[in-house]
Structures are given as C-alpha cells and as structure tokens.
Model the fold of this input.
Amino acid sequence: QVQLVESGGGLVQAGGSLRLSCAASGRYHMGWFRQAPGKEREFVAAITWSGGTTYYTDPVKGRFTISRDNAKNTVYLQMNSLKPEDTAVYYCAAARGISLQIASLYDYWGQGTQVTVSS
Done:
C-alpha cells in the first residue's frame, strides 16, 4: 500500500506562488489533479518515474512546474502567477500505467490540500 501525503496548500493572492509537495514511496509515475467546488476532478500535471517526461493541462502551462526528487521520495508542484480560477483542492496520485492524464487509471491518491487564490 502506498501512502501519499500532500502539503503546501494555503491562501495566496492572485499573482502569488505556492509549492505543493507530495511524499510518496515506490517506483510510480506521479500526477497532480484538482477539484473545485461543484466541478469534476481535473488533470493538472504529471511526471514519469524517471522525471524525464512531464505533462501539463493547457491552463497551467508556463505557470506550473512539476518535478520530483526520488532520493527524497517527493514530488513537487511549483505554482506561479496563480489565478482565482486555480482555487481547488489539489490531489497527488501515483500510477504504474502511462496514461497519466486519466484520473481513473491512477492507483493511489492523497487526501488533498486546499489552495485558495484571492482576487
């Protein structure tokens, strides 16, 4: 069983930055998803186990960066130029498969961390 623990969420003004962290053990590809109130969970970013390939949803390209430090068993999501529409609960997830933009194909999920961006 893989346990995922997110941290780093909080309240920030528009234009600000936050860095989310997710502690995870094992050889998994990792993804970040988010869910805003009344909306479905959506893909944000993903990174392969080696860190060699990353994926982003269009609304966050150029603003968010996913990275990982396998020595520390940690995945990061650096979020810059935050917008009010980025407000959501952010989840990290672990997958063995490679269809990393599909939530249903992830094997393990964290509990989520709230990100609130004020205008």
In short: The chain has a mean pLDDT of 95. The chain has no helices and eleven strands. The first strand starts at residue 5 and ends at 7. The CA atoms of residues 51 and 61 lie 17 Å apart.
